[in-house]
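Morning, I've got a small favour to ask if you have a moment. The fold is given in discrete form, as structure tokens running alongside the sequence. I'd be grateful if you could look everything over and explain what you see. No rush at all, and the record is pasted right below.
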Amino acid sequence: MKNLFRILSYIRKYTSYALLNVLFNLLTVVFSLFSVVMIVPFLQLLFKKVPMVMERPTFAYSASYVLEYLKYLLSLEINKTDQVSALIKFCLVVAVLFFLKNLFRFLAVYFLSPIRSGSVRDIRNDIYQKIVSLPLSFYSKERKGDIIARLTDDVKEVENSIISFIEVTVREPLNIFIYLFALLLISPQLTAFVFVMLLVTGLIIGRVGKSLKKQSTDAQNITGHLISMADETLSGLRIIHAFNAQKFILTQFKKINYTLYEVSARMHSRRELSSPLTEFLAMCVVCIVLYYGGTLVLDNKGLEAETFIGFMVLFAQLIQPAKSFSSAFYNIRKGLASANRIFEILDADVKIEEAKSPVAITNFKESIEYRNVSFTYNNYDDKQILKDINLNIAKGKMIALVGQSGAGKTTIVDLLPRFYDVTDGEILIDGVNVKNYALQDLRGLFGMVSQESILFNETVFNNIAFGQENVTREQVIEAAKIANAHDFISKLANGYDTNIGDRGGQLSGGERQRITIARAVLKNPPILILDEATSSLDSGSEKLVQDALTKLMKGRTTIVIAHRLSTIQYADEIIVMQDGLIRERGNHIGLLAKSGIYKRLVDLQAF
């Protein structure tokens, strides 16, 4: 239930709307009660089934006083005019009462809408904020589709169940309380009996709905797996078609989908059981109360027949609220399963934490130093990626990292902007541990161009200006020119306002890469990280991109990760990595002369 209260805490800021919702729900119930209670006494008086009450009854705390006083008021009205006129007036009064009842019901729902929509918006904002703040290591263990499912399906389920439960928990308890109070005035003995029966019924319903939460959790987990598979399928359609793997991938999808079908079918059948079960149990209670109350009337044990009839009419009004309440109880079980999945994200440990008193940094002045740095990914095998790395990079120098895949090159640069934190040792920038800098300031020092061109389904302008505020079109165009991108951008249908599609799919590989370079140019960072920025390009595109990179690197401290060793011959220092260790270091000519690992890598590429 802890997570239920956490979800409900999102409603706190909408307290004024909640109070109005309670007020109008209360008025709805009151007018509903009066519209029901008035009909029988009026008809009895109008058709002379009972004598007129012309004297005001003496006040007493009892149902009989309330009934007699109501008869007194109705008798005065009937006595003023003829019966037909009295009937017309009464019909108008009942119509007005029902109009007001439904007006207040609408207003209750109207003031619930900002609570429902606003709290769901706030939940979704919190999840997204957490998603973008979690370290990259978190996503090495999670399926992307499952994260998307929590942001969409799980939040929707919370809205449909828990947030909807708010309306029921306000309106239906008011209904039940007011009608029970009216029944208590009529017959305390019979009301106590009814109350016990309702408790027994509630316990039975609770037992039946107990397993719904687990089934809902299973269904949401499988849904996340399904979304992940769909995302991977869309990303890998080229490979699926190339390997004629349509049948294989479809078989895998059908297996997961069938599992979801089985779990969902059990879950929905259990949830749909709530309405007929509640109705059946309610009718059982009605029959038992009818029998018990009937014996009190027949045995003359303090309950008159007319009073008992009125009691049963009011008791019948309890069935629908009880039915709605039990249905909401089933739904909340399902909603709590989604809430648990949401809070797994919100409660995830943000391991990249800000220093309590961070040091501000706006520019890079001296050097970067790796001092006895080791690193282990906290994933499935806890394999040590870097071992005792010592490296100094002076301002304005170009450092190249080379080595086979898995040697630890990318990990070295990922530690600089604190995408991950070192396991042992420390990294210093201008003599200060990077953990002591404000995270936003630290990352503001770096510009990054990676092997994969990360672009968004946006315009060219917004992709280049990504993350920058108050950027002018002239600045974007200038950055594009430096990146050798202006010419092809100008030829696009809408120039810089052209939407480039999902992941920049409307552009070639070289064009995408030049836009990412333009983005780095616009940021104008003092430290540049190039992660195999030209390795996936053809020769023509590589020349244009390499020329753009040369312009970008001018006057900046640059760390280059390269598989194509021809691109780093002029680096100030080349670091040769193998198995997480620095095996060789020096310039191109010196390393060739050693005839070691670097020489073998160069020979392999030359061949």
Summary: The radius of gyration is 37 Å.
